Amino acid sequence: MFETLSTGNTAAGFCAAQPAPGGGPEIAPVLPRQAKTVRDTGLEPRFVTDLVLKAIQAGGKTPLTHLAGKLRLSISVLREVLNPLIAEQQVEVAWCGESDIDMQYQLTAYGQRGAADAMARCGYVGPAPVTLASYRAVVERQALRHADVERITPAQLAGALGEEGLSQAARDVLGAALYARRSLLLYGPSGGGKTTLARKLGRLLPGSIAVPYALMAGRQVIRLYDPAVHVAPPPVARQQEERRSCDARWIVCQRPLVHVGAELGRAMLDLRYDAEQGVYHAPPHLQANNGMLVLDDVGRQRIAAAELLNRFIGPLDAGTDQLSLQGGQAELVPFDAAVVFATNLAPTSVFDDAALRRIGYKADIGALSPNAYRALLCRQCRLRRIDVEDTAVDHLIERLHPQSGRALLACYPGELLDRVADFAGFAGTEPRLTVAAVEQAWRSMFIACATEIQK
Fold first, then answer.
1. I need a surface site. Which of 33, 158, 287, 290 has the fewest CB within 10 A?
2. Beta bridge partners of 342
3. Regarding predicted confidence, which is higher, 306 or 401?
4. Do 287 and 222 meet the contact criterion of CB atoms below 8 Å apart?
């Protein structure tokens, strides 16, 4: 379900989505209304002026429309800034076309000095940030916890998981966690498919959201948008709002899925200052707002599992987090994400009883049954267009796995088939899963492993 506002609310500062083509349901989130004046942006006039000077300095002779696109500000806001700069002889019109927006601007020598001073104050050049107050309001409106947000159904979960071989009990736990928007712990041996499963769960989060390119915290800029995290929605679900009436400092994307693994340390959980660019970079959980945060390899990270849990469960319950800027300034930011913990270790060796109680749901993602493993292997063969012999599948499940003591984990079919294809490609033949081929692939994976039992 996508949120819409009444006509009255639209007048209060938001532009409502247009209906989808063909008269279907509305398919875009509500975006803030475009700022028509500098005051409407919520930013200090000096900051906006500095941003314009730096953008013109970087672009040389800069068309007005390019300046609007770079800074994501309306023509009316830019003219409000440019006119005084022209009067002060910091900016001059370099070229003028037939229309009133077909103009190019450049800096004077005086303006070059002004741009240098602006760069010394803040090196950021890019889309104008939005205020934290505006960001908090939009995150709250898009929050997963809202009662009217679309809830996952058994059919949707089954469609996403497909023939993953998960037990019905595990599927029920996953469905309940997503339905309730509560934290989830996935545990089981390495190679069981926990990371792949978490990504599939993230794609089940409904709808599109609005994300700002950057935030303004006090007088500091926080870069939030990341194209690798904030992915554009499919073409059929792209935003249909009246773009001229909406604030271009925001972009519509799918609900984000942010994944961090063993590399996670304390420093990554706070704002990171980039002195060269003059901006802060948002930590993973801030980028994950209105989406899903996957904390993988819990217990193997550079931060204790209990500390990691405490770092997120409290803010998750409160819906807010506190981040620190240089100089000790702290800012309250929203925190709305479905949090998934994943570990290869026994849960009781990672968390104590009190900590485990704080995690909403726990799902054991372990070895597959022989039938589920067989189905997964055959499906992987179909996807890779590899012909398969039943005797090869029997040999793998009934002999190779038992003799080696290796569990039937979800990672093995794909890894084995990749090797079957590699060997066939090198030999110049079509890949085919035979007893000989599976033996060759198996030996290439495990022959040097200490756990391999000699035949």
1. 158
2. 186
3. 401
4. no
pLDDT in tens, 136-167: 999 999 998 776 778 889 999 998 887 667 88
Residue pair 122/50 in contact (Cβ under 8 Å)? The answer is: yes
Q: How, if at all, do strands 208-212 and 214-217 pair?
A: unpaired
Return the exposure string of 64-87: e unless at least 16 CB atoms fall within 10 Å of the residue's CB, then b: beebbebbbbbeebbebbbeebbe
Instruction: Evaluate if residue 28 carries a pLDDT over 80.
Output: no
Pair of tokens at residue 116: 């240098």
Alpha carbon distances (Å) from 437 to 57, 121, 377, 379, 430: 63, 64, 14, 18, 12
Q: Do residues 209 and 1 lie in contact, with contact meaning Cβ atoms separated by under 8 Å?
A: no
The contacts of residue 141 (CB under 8 Å, 6+ apart) are 3, 30
Query: How sure is the predictor about 187, in pLDDT bands with cuts at 50, 70 and 90?
Result: very high
Residues 107, 54: Cα–Cα separation, whole Å = 10
Note whether 34 and 15 are within 8 A (CB): yes
316 or 44: which leads in pLDDT: 44
Distance CA 447, CA 442 (A): 8
Element spanning 340, H or E: strand 337-343
Sequence letter at residue 418: D
Q: Taking all residues of the chain, what is their mean pLDDT, rounded to a whole number?
A: 88
Q: Rounded to an integer, what distance in angstroms lies between the CA atom of residue 222 and that of residue 128?
A: 11
Closest C-alpha among 169, 172, 192 to residue 345: 192
Strand partners, 92: 106
- CA 353/CA 340 separation, integer angstroms: 18
Nearest Cα to Cα of residue 325 among 284, 279, 260, 289: 279
Strand boundaries in 127-169, DSSP class E: 130-131
Chain position carrying tokens 């370099």: 94
Using an 8 Å Cβ cutoff, are 440 and 423 in contact? yes
**pLDDT for position 4:** 29
pLDDT at 240 over 80: no
- 33-84 pLDDT tens trace: 999 999 999 999 999 999 999 999 999 999 999 999 999 999 999 999 999 9
Rounded to a whole number of angstroms, the CA Rg of the chain reads: 27
Lowest mean pLDDT among 11-15, 104-108, 145-149: 11-15
